[in-house]
Amino acid sequence: ARSSLIAILPAFALVLVLATISFGGLVRAAITRGEVAASWQQAGADAVIDTVNSSLPVTPAARRALAAVPGVQHLAAITLTAGVRADGTQVAIAAVAPRQYAALIAATPGPRFPAAALARHSGRADGAVPAVATRAAVAALGRGTTALVIGSAGYIVRFRVVAAAPAAPALASRAGPALIVVPNWALHVGGQPPNLMLITGPRLDQGRLRAVAARLVPGGSVTFRSAALAGLARAPLPHGAYVAYAVGAAVAAGFGIAVLLVWLLLSAGSRDAALARLAAMGLSARQGSWLMLAETLPEIVVAIAAGTGCAWALASLVGPDLSLAAFTGSGAGVQVRASPAAMALAAAALLFVAVATLAGQAIVTSR
């Protein structure tokens, strides 16, 4: 009965404020996801150690030392070489430990690697070695048994493509589109040690990893996915977008808090009188505070819910047609989708300001 129409306009203002903050946060989160995906496409792992130019081979002891670096969760040693067929067709060959390589790929956003296809029983009675090939390699070699001359060693190994899978970005960038992944037990890799190390781990000790690599494989290059991600985020266009969204969100949040405070202050007089009457009737300050919250918060909660719903509708309606490829640094598009956590954070902030203001008014009035 004591509510007035003056609360209608502030409610609509809060709806607009929350929609602006939430949608801006959704767009920024989409750009961030696109940059993370682009960094995985560039690096292929959290850390990549290329030992082609190293003066020392990667020994089992070196692999154990690298695996013991704090933060390392998965490590895969890969021997990259080439195979040439009698007709001159050439493909790249990656010799891996199937289980270790599959575990590492599973820790990345890429498609899973079919490690079971490289089991020893996957070969045929003719002694052909199972191989997982890219589409380009399947087109070059076909599905039958193929004999390839391995690298500079000159020995011949018979392969049969048993499965098709895309190459990991770290391999594709070095080997090209035509690549077959084979088990290292099938090749004479003793004469050619691993020349590529892929490492995953969200909290790698980069300084320690770089120092261990410099000591055990001097001359090898170490690259980190975090460096690629930082480079994408520092690019002028994404950085400018982040600044613009941050300023816009700050301005909208400031107006939202101001509107909320004005809304509460305009009705403060009637609440003061009500609290005084309630105190004279014997209610404690705590009971009066709860009553004021129960009276005022429903309108604020409805406004917050409406603003969150508008942001959700914007993400659903505009998101599929909004291209953010220019912001991701790789040209890869990313979809804007609703994020309950981001929208709930903005709503919770306004709700906290409202509760704090009402509680403060109740405390001051009671004294």
Structural class: alpha+beta
- Order of strands, widest sheet: 2-3-7-4-6-5
* Mean pLDDT across all amino acids: 82
Query: How many angstroms separate the termini?
Result: 26 Å
Largest sheet: number of strands, sense, barrel closure: 6 strands, mixed, barrel
Please state roughly what percent of the residues sit in beta strands, choosing from under 5%, 5-15%, 15-25%, 25-35%, 35-45% or over 45%. Answer: 15-25%
Helix content: 40-55%
**Helix/strand order:** HEHEEHEHEEHEEHEHHHHHH
Low-confidence stretches: none
Number of strands: 9
Q: Can you describe this structure?
A:
With 367 residues, this protein is α+β, with helices and mostly antiparallel strands. 54% of the residues lie in helices and 15% in strands. It has 12 helices and 9 strands. It has helices at 8-43, 60-67, 98-106, 135-141, 169-175, 206-216, 225-234, 236-266, 268-280, 285-318, 325-328, 340-366, and strands at residues 47-50, 74-84, 90-96, 129-133, 145-150, 156-164, 179-183, 196-200, 221-224. The chain has a 6-stranded mixed β-barrel, surrounded by 4 helices. A hairpin with a 5-residue loop joins strand 5 and strand 6 (156-164). It is elongated and about 100 Å long. The chain starts with 7 loop residues before the first helix and ends with a helix.
Note the topology.
Layout (H helix, E strand, L loop, with lengths): L7 H36 L3 E4 L9 H8 L6 E11 L5 E7 L1 H9 L22 E5 L1 H7 L3 E6 L5 E9 L4 H7 L3 E5 L12 E5 L5 H11 L4 E4 H10 L1 H31 L1 H13 L4 H34 L6 H4 L11 H27 L1
Parallel strand pairs: 3-7, 4-6
Antiparallel strand pairs: 1-8, 1-9, 2-3, 2-5, 2-8, 4-7, 5-6
Helix pairs in contact: 1-7, 1-8, 1-10, 1-12, 8-12, 9-10, 9-12, 10-12
